[in-house]
Amino acid sequence: MGGSSKAKVLLLGEIENAHDEWNALSSLAELITPKSSERAGFIEECRAGAFDGVVAVYRTFGSISISGRFDEELVAVLPASVRFVSHNGAGYDQVEIPPCTARGIRVSNVPTAVDDATADVTIFLMLGALRGLNASMLALRAGHWRGNPLPPLGHDPEGKLLGIVGMGGIGRNVKRKAEAFGMTVQYHNRKELRAELAGGARYVGFDELLATSDVISLNLPLNKQTHHILSHGEFARMKRGVVIVNSARGAVIDEAALVAALDSGQVASCGLDVYEDEPTVHPGLLANPHVMLVPHMGTWTRETQTAMERWNIGNVRAALETGRLNSPVPEQADM
Questions:
Q1: Rounded distance, CA 218 to CA 248, Å?
Q2: CA-to-CA dists, residue 262 to 129, 148, 181, angstroms
């Protein structure tokens, strides 16, 4: 980056693991943090010039509590010097890309560092939901062994047809791991994958996937097109007794519709890592002993969190050294 004065990098959130890599950026830029801890104060700091000279913003998923969404209102008050926003996550629905693009701000995410850990949690939730383990786990802790009455018999994954909605890196990782349990995989995507990426999974239309899958795994990004991609009508078209797994974003499912489908038996069980209004969970899910619920811990491992931070720091470093991001979001691939 040109210029005689040192560039600035704004940290929104915390660096939890990759401290050496973060501190090493100080040779390239002044590393600063906001004083405010909520959106109104952050916007006021922006307007007061506290962040003038910031070239790149490193933001975490949890930093939404500081700045709120990176929407049109927020992007409009960022200093003119901001050229890059590096988001530490695969999903970047907290950052609205069109207003960033309009301002010439390039956005990156962490697209593959999360794949293994998120797929592992997906498989855990799928197996737990198929086997109906949660009810007996609750009974055991309450001193009632398997429960009285006994829970319904579960199901083996072997021979089941898994329908994956969204065959990106995480979806393909889920496919590979599910096949180790004897499952057959079909998928639906915006576009059919090349044969080498599909790895033998069959590409089907969305309606066919809904109607024929024994288990449906959601592994797609949240956007205007995918919001409530599963609602009352979609659940009604599924096989009775289907199992739903979601490790993507909560709002791709209409939670009220899911609860109704669970209560009617149309959906036998579900495994959820994400929720529509986190950290609030629909009371109908909390009250159902037959569902597997995890509080958004898909990437909650030391190894994955460290890898994500290093990747995101790498994006900031690339921005400072080359004026480019290593992993720009797809919407800005040609920017």
A1: 6
A2: 12, 21, 25
Instruction: Reduce the DSSP state of residue 188 to 3 states and report it.
Output: strand
Enter the tokens of residue 172.
Answer: 């393909």
Residues annotated as catalytic are 249, 278, 296
Nearest to 171 by CA among 194, 198, 152: 198
Using alpha carbons, select from 243, 265, 242, 245 the residue that is nearest to residue 253: 245
Smallest CA-to-CA distance from 188 within 175, 203, 168, 176 is with 203
Alpha helix (H) residue ranges in 132-254: 133-141, 169-179, 195-198, 206-212, 232-236
Q: Are strands 215-218 and 106-108 parallel, antiparallel or unpaired?
A: unpaired
Between the two ends of the chain, the Cα-to-Cα distance in Å is: 18
Q: Which amino acid is at 173?
A: N
Half-sphere exposure of 246 toward its Cβ, with a 13 Å CA cutoff? 25
Per-residue pLDDT of the chain (335 residues; tens, 9 = 90+): 444 478 999 999 999 999 999 999 999 999 999 999 999 999 999 999 999 999 999 999 999 999 999 999 999 999 999 999 999 999 999 999 999 999 999 999 999 999 999 999 999 999 999 999 999 999 999 999 999 999 999 999 999 999 999 999 999 999 999 999 999 999 999 999 999 999 999 999 999 999 999 999 999 999 999 999 999 999 999 999 999 999 999 999 999 999 999 999 999 999 999 999 999 999 999 999 999 999 999 999 999 999 999 999 999 999 999 999 999 999 998 88
Contacts 24+ apart (CB under 8 A), 146-155: 151/290, 152/290, 154/130, 155/130, 155/131
Give me the residues paired with residue 228 across strands: none
Q: Say whether pTM exceeds 0.85.
A: yes
| SS3 state at 257 | helix
